[in-house]
Amino acid sequence: MEDTEKATAESKASPWWKEILQSLVIAAVLALIIRSFLFTPFYIPSPSMEPTLYPGDRIIVNRLAYRLGDPQRGDIVVFRYPLDPSRDLIKRVVAIGGDTVEVRNNVLYINGKPQNEADYLPPGVVYSDFGPVKVPAGSYFMMGDNRNNSADSRVWGTLERKFIIGKAVVIYWPLDRIGFIR
Predict the structure, then answer these.
(1) Where is the chain membrane-spanning (predicted)?
(2) Which of 172, 180, 139, 178 is CA-nearest to residue 157?
């Protein structure tokens, strides 16, 4: 009787390799879901966002942030480059739909009001006059923090919301730069 029960229990037990394979498949599916819908790693390839982000920084992008709300002025956003959607870029939102953007004498004006950008612009940055330009509804005006080395909305125009991937939230590499992005 015991031999029969033992044989039945052994025949129902999965081999160890099946359990490992099932665990790997479940982990891969979960990773794919998290990366596609929640959080995506992103690599900073250029100096256009210095001193906020440096080439080689690795960050986490929150894909869920703009499913529940709209990008706000000051957010750092990863998006598909509108002139070549196979490329991803990262810039700061400086104006939203309905705003008028202008740069005069090295000062950014939104709707005629000078903006305080001392928290994220490199000291001594000098950039050329631009605008005024009115941002269409449902679009955003994007600028790099390193204004002299950034191809941004001043070059390629405003960004439609459909190109936005998500909000840059955390630097996770290199270790000495770990922290939230502001």
Answers:
(1) 20-44
(2) 139
Q: Is the pTM of this model over 0.85?
A: no
> Quick check: is 29 in a domain?
no
Domains contained in the chain, number: 1
Supply the CATH number for residue 54's domain.
Answer: 2.10.109.10
Average pLDDT over residues 12-39: 87
User: Out of 14, 23, 86, 91, which one is annotated catalytic?
Assistant: 91
Residue 23 lies in a domain: no
139 is catalytic: no
Q: Which of 6, 23, 46, 48 is catalytic?
A: 48
Q: What is the pLDDT of residues 141-159, one digit of tens each?
A: 999 999 888 899 999 999 9
Answer yes or no: is 63 within a domain: yes
Active-site residue flag, 48: yes
Please, which residues have CB within 8 angstroms of residue 48's CB and are 6 or more apart in sequence? 90, 91, 144, 145, 146, 149, 150, 151, 152
